[in-house]
Amino acid sequence: MEIFIRRMAPNRWIFAPQAPYTAEPGGYAWVPPTPERPAPWETFAQSALKLKDDMVEWLTSFSLPAIPVDLMGFSQGAAMALTFTLLFPERVNRLVILAGFLPKGGKKALRPGLLSGKACFLAHGYNDEIVPLERAKECIEALETTGAKVTTCLDNVGHRVSARCLHAMLEFLGFNAQGV
Q: Considering the entire predicted model, what is its pTM?
């Protein structure tokens, strides 16, 4: 997430937690390894509960108010951000999903009006070889089912965020291209 953090406004608090599980090759994951890939909704929900507890601790330790936050994630991190938002909508102001997906079985958490009016941004590549475009479309449909206001940016890239979508995301978050 560092590539995005460098472009954020300096007058904002940014918490960018590292996912707690080791993943191959040399990365990190929000859910423990499971035979089912991707991990099911219940596994993501357990991790989201832990993330909520951590978030409360961080806000308290920095004497910050427990106001709704802007939440962003890439790939599995986007699935975690979406899971968190569906479980704790009152804690999220805006949601940014980058090359993400709704975890398998997550449709059971969808309720009309759950995210009524909540602003969500979704960026995805037409040529994503890790998270197929169909999963992004499913995610958009899921968000719209809950009443969220979804802004999308689809582009001719693989499993990454294009420059055009990065600019659109910064605009969505209220920053200019330099992050101020």
A: 0.90
Q: Does an H or E element contain 87, and which? A: helix 76-87
139 CB-side CA count, 13 A: 32
Q: Are the C-beta atoms of 59 and 80 separated by less than 8 Å? A: no
- Angle, vertex CA 42, rays to CA 114 and CA 87, nearest 5: 25
Architecture of domain 25-172 in this structure: 3-Layer(aba) Sandwich (3.40)
Where do the structural domains in the chain lie, given as residue ranges?
A: 25-172
The token duo for 58 is 């961080």
**93: enclosing H helix or E strand:** strand 92-98
Contact 69, 131 (CB under 8 A): no
Q: Please check whether residue 131 is in contact with residue 160, taking contact to mean a CB–CB distance below 8 angstroms.
A: no
Per-residue pLDDT of the chain (180 residues; tens, 9 = 90+): 666 666 666 666 777 788 888 887 778 888 887 777 778 899 999 999 999 999 999 889 989 888 888 999 999 999 999 999 999 999 999 999 999 999 999 999 999 999 999 999 999 999 999 999 999 999 999 999 999 999 999 999 999 999 999 999 989 988 755 543
DSSP conformation letters of 1-31: -HHHHTTS-TTS----PPPSEEETTTEEESS
